[in-house]
Each structure stands twice: as C-alpha cells, then as structure tokens.
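Quick one:
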Amino acid sequence: MELLLLVPVAAFVWKLYQLKRSPHDAPLRCVTLCLLCAVLSYPLAMPGGAAGVETVAGHGTARLMQNVLLLLMMYFLMCFYLYSAEGPAGRTRARREAIVVAVVTVAVTAVAETAPHKVFAGSFTSADMTIPQAAFFYGGAGLYLMYALGMAGKWTRRYARMSRRPHSTGLWMAAVSLTAMAGTCALRAVFVVILWAGGSVPKPLMVGVAFLLTALILLFVAGFTYSGARTRMASLRLWLRHRRDYRRLTPLWELLSEAYPENVLRAASPAVLDRWRARGVHRRYHRRIVECRDGLVDISPYLVDGGGGETVRNLDPAEFASLLRQAAARVGQDDRTPRRAVPLPMALGNDRRSDVTQLIAVSDALRTSA
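Output:
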C-alpha cells in the first residue's frame, strides 16, 4: 500500500513545481492544496499511520485529522472550479463555501472532543454508530463530502465535454472518480443511519466500500495528472530521440569540425549557469545540427564540380561519405577548387526532419567505413 502513496506524492510534487513557475495562478494553487490534503490524509487512512499519530496525540486524533483533511481537499477542489469557471466572481462563492466548510469542520471537531475516549479509536467500519457523537461525526462529514464531490463531478463532466484529448481523457477519469466517490459517501451516510437506528450492515460490504473510496481517490489523482504525465512522456521520448541522434551525428561532426574548427559553437557567456544550460541534450542536439550544416556549406566547393549540386543528389550515403572524406582531406590545400559555397539538394526532401535524417545516414556511413 505504501507504493500507492507515490501516485499522489508525484502529482503533488509536479503541481508544486508548476506553482513555483506560476505563483499567482489561483486555480493551480487550489489544485496543489487539494493534492497536499490528499497526500497528508492518505497515510492516516492506513493502520500504521493512524496508530503512530494516536500514540502521540491520543485516540481519535488520526480519524479527526483525516476527515478534516478530506473536507479541506474537497473545498480546494471546489475553489479550483470556481476560479476556473467564474474568474474573479468565483472568489465570492469561494468565501461562502469557506464558511460552510469551516462550520462543518468546527462541528465535527467539537463532536470529536466531546465523544467518549475510545469512540474514534477504530475506523468507520468498527465505530459504534449508536453513540450520537460517532453518528454525527461520520454522517455530517460524509454529507458535506457527498455535496462537494457531487458538485465537483458535475463541473468536471462539463469541462470534459468541452475538451479534446488528451485533456478530456483525464477529465473523464476524474469525473468518474468524483461521481463514484459521491455515491460511496451517500452509501456510507445510509450505513450511518442504519447503524444509528440499531440495524446492522455486513462487515465485508463496509470494508469493500472503504477500499473502493481509497482506490477512487487514486483514480482522481491520476485523472487530474493524466494530461501532464502524457506530455512529460512525450517530452521524454523526444529527449531520448535527440540524445540518440546527437550521438549518431558524432562521426560527421568530428570530420567537419576537424576541417572547420571555427564552426564549433561555444557558450555565449562564461557564467557557470549558462555553460550548464548549454550542455542540455536539446541544445547540444540543435547545436550539432547547425555545426554539421555549416560544415557542409563550407566544404561544398570540394564536393561538386563546376559549381552544381546535382552531382551529389543521387549518391547513396556510403558514396557521399566517401566523397566527403576525400573532400575533407583536400581542405586547406592550395588547389584551384572554388571557395564559394554551392547548394546541395536534399534527396529526401526539404523539411527539417528529412535534412536531419540524411545527415544521420551520412554519419552512420562514416562510422561504418571507419
């Protein structure tokens, strides 16, 4: 179960990073606080975490803290939608909702303080609901959670219909989890009423609902981070491709940079931070492409005869690599080769990716021939 905590923790860390870059973004701040409450409440739901807190602070403290954090989590989630949908006008509604959650929080805290010593020593499934404080504590908190989750699920479905993939996929995941959580809270409220009236509820059913609620919280976190995680995965794939292509271009770059060392670009500033940034994979990749292109422009007079580039259009990479080695050996010699650059037509197309593909093919041919 400890591994499951990594999901909300990773989501919170990512949102915290985004909040650092945009500290005045109110909806983002609300999402970050919502995830923080989820991260703090999740360990309290586990037996080990609850036992540790209650050993220090007394019986029932962990249960009270968990429910208060859940109330705050739902409040910040509602604020996210209010700020996103209504803008500045949502601040007034957020203040009203803050009063509501404050009243509920004070009420459940007061009830918990006046309850007998061991009423909240266990979990929801083992609590004695015939005690009025226990019934009010779980019932009151559950009703507010049902209200907040239902409203959040309604707004999420509205945004999901308006959005496109991949944003809509994550929003639908969040909408399903929020609606299902509202349903589980309503079901637990029914359990409270039945138990308070002296009835009984099967223990496996109560345990199953508790585990379902925990799983739905994880689904909610995954839904809200789905779009960002997918974007990060795409960025990772691009990073890996640039790193691979950068290395594959090494033979071509070494040949051209040896012939024209002045084409090798340096960091614009001697500052340590600028030098560190210049070593990033994407910067090195693009810099290497520019250096290879500049080298090919400089060496082009040695590659063609009569100033025309058509002679190299139909050469395969191996033949072009051989011609390039011969031309590099002639650079600097006092011959009659014209020094004016000659355009080299691309055999694979004129777009950037085709250009890079051809450079890589020539570089691979150089490596093979070496």
